[in-house]
Amino acid sequence: MTDLSAFPITQKWPAKNPDIIQLYSLPTPNGVKVSIALEELGLAYEPHRVDFGGNEQKSPEFVSLNPNGRIPALIDPHGPDGRPIGLFESGAILWYLAEKTGKLVPSDPAQKYETLCWVMFQMGGVGPMFGQFGHFYKFAADKVANNSYPMERYRDEAKRLLGVLEGRLQDRQWIMGETYTVADIALFPWVRGADIFYGGRDVLGYGDFPAVMGWLERCTARPASQKGIDVPAKE
Fold it and tell me: Omega before 72 cis (within 30°)?
């Protein structure tokens, strides 16, 4: 049995089976990217729920694995050279899992790096901008009631990014064409989340992006998405 005692996070969230991947997360747009990928890849994993209400993501145990104090984070007991490895940042975890298994990325080197570009598009653009839109539109609406600029700024940028996706998905089933990849997994939870979590469907004009809406429906309907989208389950 793998010894994970070198990872202090396992003191707060003990591993029932230390021989499988340990996932520390919540069902947020960033969190479910990893659980959906794990389901797609058929990798055994043990999810641990990190309670934001108790600020557990800021606990010393969690920060020992991710110094930035954000979910998701992961321990793979069978990392490079067979040794355990701890990982954080959802995009990095997705890429690691894809390279570990040789799946969810094209085999052609040029297409592989094109896929990485779209993962970075999500990490540097869609995630931060959609998140800021949701913050000002839903969670801080009372604080900016007399100043519409913050919400409008991030609303307009989110709509611009949806337009980029709309252009990419013209006559394409997935971001990379016929192949479902980690680029789709990185992106679709955020497009879904802007509606489900933030209630922003109408203000973002989702009806103006039919290719994105069709792609979102296809992504969400996948069995792995249906399983991973609620991980970790409420206790």
Answer: yes
185's CB contacts (< 8 A; 6+ apart) are 33, 36, 37, 40, 94, 104, 219
Number of helical H runs and strand E runs in the chain: 10, 4
The 10s digit of each residue's pLDDT in 119-164 is 999 999 999 999 999 999 999 999 999 999 999 999 999 999 999 9
Q: How high is the pLDDT of residue 108? A: 97
Residue 3 structure tokens: 């010894």
The two beta strands, 85-88 and 73-76, are antiparallel
Strands of 45-49's sheet, edge to edge? 45-49, 21-25, 73-76, 85-88
> What is the DSSP secondary structure assignment for residue 5, as one 8-state letter?
T
How many whole angstroms separate alpha carbon 149 and alpha carbon 28? Answer: 26
Rounded distance, CA 126 to CA 186, Å?
10
User: Cis link prior to 77 (omega < 30° from 0)?
Assistant: no
How distant, in Å, are the alpha carbons of 31, 41, 65, 88, 140 from that of 68? Answer: 15, 27, 9, 9, 23
**Residue among 39, 48, 38 at smallest CA distance from 18:** 48
Whole-prediction pTM: 0.96
